[in-house]
């Protein structure tokens, strides 16, 4: 059952990615709506997979890389669908959906067997900490997509070479606003994830903070986004600067999530 | 029945001729009725815009119909036919259908893709419908033209980009700011181009206008016109940060706005984007201003470059539009031909059926020792003979109906079999087909 839901999700995300890329080539309203419906169907299947796995394992399924990548992808799609409902910019999906699909596809590269939980992970904080963290990651991923679109569109406007792509991309103003929105959603979630992680660490290991590589990199990520938010609110950083920082932030975040797990050893490294 | 189009446009006649031939849009009843009074003209629609005057009719007599419209146009406007004739084009059949589809889709317009023409044809059709000078053929024809134009509009990007400098500027502003309703325009100098561009921005929802000029009185006057705020030229850099869009067209011989000024202004705006449009020649704004973060500068050449690339894009989209029209012509032509062929088939069949029935009745009445099922058998026999005989001509007519040269066959059949040539059947049929 579980494997079926997984395969179904992967297949639908693949279809949605193709549909959104087709929309990028031929931006017809109908195609955009169809893409969104496909993606929504994938989201439902993905939720089913996650819930099913939760019931089977008896804990939130974010305890190994396979599960984390899958959950990351689920959060990206969920947050994206919210933005889609609000802004109706299907083209954003052309940039975000492939990310979700790739995360999902990457998860197939890691063992998916449900393993008994390590005692430290047996806690109510598992859900709070990890879900918050991944929702914030998802918001920053959407910001990443919008930032790339911003830089492309800005390049067209500055260079005055207005190709067909220029017509398809939304206005700079909207892209900047999405970037900001993502930040205001993602940053509090990340902050909360770090705080809840610290509380959990205290109850599991007796110390709030132990400078484990994951913790260190989380803090770095937090600082990058804090700087961006601060810059936006006080000195009015916007546009290109904000877009570049959103992209930098996303890569730091990716390293925090993947790099630390794969290359550095620590309490967060899943085996 | 044929469709005939006679007219002239910006492509065939200069404005002084077009003016003379134009019909006053509010007084269409008289010319429409006059057209319908002419012999052999069954239906008529007149399209009259500043770029074209066209008469659409349905008639049985193509050559006669063309000649009669030409004479009508000359007589009605009191122009000698010799002067008018060289400017007129006349189409019938498929060419007429193609022509009107192209006109409605704005492929024949001065600016390809401009949307006004469709509305103008709709208005023209509205008059014809009001005065009942259009009937089943032109009704169907024009409705088809409207739907073709709509298809062209939705399936191609023929009208999706701005093709004038002012509109290009508005379009660019939309790509930078999104919504323009909370944006402010600053006019520097009071040139005509600047005014025009400012009007486009106001029509597109820009909220505030500020005007500055070396002569302050001129700024005050122009500001009044736009219900804006005059700014003294000396205060320009004190006020510039309040503007999102800056339109400049002074007669200055040197740059009046330099990167340093703009950097300062943009800092005061907390990096909120600015869009500078330099319409002046020589230019007012240093091109290096474009390098300042969140500042976009377009001069006249840049804008014209945008327009040129948009026009090129339209030309490419026009090719797709022509393909759509090709497809639709076939469909409409088929309908028109069937309209012609079907009543003839119906008439032919009923003629045969009447003859068969009459003869059968005569025979039955005089046949004394008819076997019990004789009447039934004779009925079946005669029906079978009639059907067998009628099958080849019916099939042939349906086939030619889809190809062309319909008139020839239809006329021959009608003459040979003395069929009724009334309009009423065609009309009934047409209504059924609607």
Summarize this structure briefly.
Chain A is built from nine helices and no strands. Chain A is an all-alpha fold.
In words, what does this structure look like?
Chain A: The chain crosses the membrane at residues 6-23, 63-83, 90-114, 126-152, 178-201, 216-235, 242-264. Chain A: Keywords: Cytochrome c-type biogenesis, Membrane, Thylakoid, Transmembrane, Transmembrane helix. The complex is a heterodimer of chains A (271) and B (434). By secondary structure, chain A is mainly alpha-helical. Chain A contains 9 helices and no strands. Chain A has helices at 2-25, 29-57, 65-87, 90-107, 125-159, 164-168, 172-205, 213-234, 240-263. Chain A starts with a helix and ends in an 8-residue tail after the last helix. The mean pLDDT of chain A is 89. By secondary structure, chain B is an alpha/beta fold. Chain B has 3 domains: 2-161, 2-Layer Sandwich (Beta Polymerase, domain 2), CATH 3.30.460; 166-308, NAD(P)-binding Rossmann-like Domain (Rossmann fold), CATH 3.40.50; 335-417. At the A-B interface, helix 5, helix 6 and helix 7 of A face helix 8 and helix 13 of B.
């Amino acid at each position: 059952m579980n494997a079926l839901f997984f395969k179904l999700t992967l297949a639908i995300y693949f279809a949605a990615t193709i549909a959104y890329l087709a929309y990028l080539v031929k931006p017809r309203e109908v195609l955009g709506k169809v893409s969104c419906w496909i993606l929504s169907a994938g989201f439902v299947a993905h939720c089913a997979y996650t819930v099913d796995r939760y019931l089977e394992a008896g804990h939130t399924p974010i305890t190994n890389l396979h599960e984390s990548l899958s959950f990351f992808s689920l959060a990206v799609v969920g947050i994206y669908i919210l933005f889609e409902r609000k802004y109706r910019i299907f083209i954003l999906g052309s940039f975000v959906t492939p990310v979700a699909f790739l995360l999902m596809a990457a998860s197939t590269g890691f063992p998916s067997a449900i393993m008994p939980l390590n005692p430290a992970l047996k806690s109510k904080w598992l859900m709070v900490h990890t879900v918050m963290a991944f929702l914030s990651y998802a918001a920053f991923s959407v910001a990443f997509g919008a930032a790339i679109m911003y830089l492309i569109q800005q390049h067209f406007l500055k260079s005055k070479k207005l190709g067909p792509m220029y017509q398809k991309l939304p206005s700079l103003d909207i892209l900047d606003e999405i970037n900001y929105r993502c930040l205001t959603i993602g940053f509090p979630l990340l902050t909360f994830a770090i705080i809840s992680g610290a509380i959990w660490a205290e109850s599991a290991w007796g110390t709030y903070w132990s400078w484990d590589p994951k913790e260190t990199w989380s803090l770095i990520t937090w600082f990058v986004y804090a700087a961006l938010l601060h810059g936006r609110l006080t000195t009015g950083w916007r546009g290109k600067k904000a877009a570049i920082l959103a992209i930098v932030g996303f890569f730091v975040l990716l390293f925090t999530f993947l790099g630390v797990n794969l290359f550095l050893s620590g309490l967060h490294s899943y085996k | 029945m044929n469709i005939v189009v006679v007219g002239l446009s910006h492509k065939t006649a200069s404005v002084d001729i077009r003016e003379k031939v134009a019909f006053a849009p509010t007084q269409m009843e008289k010319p429409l009725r006059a057209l319908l009074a002419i012999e052999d003209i069954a239906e008529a629609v007149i399209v009259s815009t500043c770029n074209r005057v066209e008469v659409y009719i349905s008639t049985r007599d193509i050559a006669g119909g063309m000649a009669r419209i030409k004479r009508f146009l000359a007589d009605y406007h009191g122009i000698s036919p010799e002067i008018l004739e060289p400017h007129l084009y006349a189409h019938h059949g498929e060419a007429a259908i193609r022509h009107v589809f192209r006109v409605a889709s704005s492929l024949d317009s001065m600016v390809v893709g401009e949307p006004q023409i469709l509305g103008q044809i709709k208005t023209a059709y509205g008059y014809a419908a009001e005065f009942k000078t259009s009937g089943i053929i032109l009704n169907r024809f024009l409705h088809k033209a409207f739907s073709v134009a709509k298809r062209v509009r939705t399936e191609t990007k023929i009208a999706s980009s701005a093709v004038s400098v002012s509109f290009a500027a508005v379009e660019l502003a939309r790509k930078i700011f999104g919504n323009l309703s909370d944006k402010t325009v600053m006019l520097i100098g009071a040139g005509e181009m600047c005014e025009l561009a400012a009007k486009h921005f106001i029509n597109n929802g820009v909220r505030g206008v500020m005007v500055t000029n070396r002569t302050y009185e001129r700024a005050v006057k122009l500001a009044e016109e736009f219900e804006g705020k005059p700014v003294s030229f000396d205060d320009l850099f004190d006020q510039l940060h309040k503007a999102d869009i800056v339109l400049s067209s002074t007669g200055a011989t040197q740059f009046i706005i330099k990167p340093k000024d703009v950097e300062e202004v943009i800092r005061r705006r907390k990096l909120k984007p600015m869009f500078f449009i330099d319409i002046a020649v020589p230019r007012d704004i240093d091109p290096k201003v474009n390098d300042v973060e969140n500042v976009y500068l377009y001069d006249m050449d840049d804008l014209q470059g945008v327009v040129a690339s948009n026009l090129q894009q339209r030309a490419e989209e026009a090719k797709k539009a022509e393909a759509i029209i090709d497809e639709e012509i076939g469909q409409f032509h088929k309908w028109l031909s069937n309209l012609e062929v079907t009543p003839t088939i119906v008439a032919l069949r009923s003629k045969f059926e009447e003859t068969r029935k009459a003869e059968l009745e005569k025979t039955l009445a005089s046949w004394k020792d008819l076997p019990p099922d004789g009447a039934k058998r004779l009925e079946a026999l005669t029906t079978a003979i009639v059907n067998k005989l009628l099958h080849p001509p019916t099939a042939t007519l349906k086939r030619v109906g889809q190809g062309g040269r319909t008139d020839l066959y239809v006329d021959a059949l009608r003459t040979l079999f003395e069929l009724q040539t009334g309009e009423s059947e065609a009309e009934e049929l047409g209504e059924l087909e609607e």
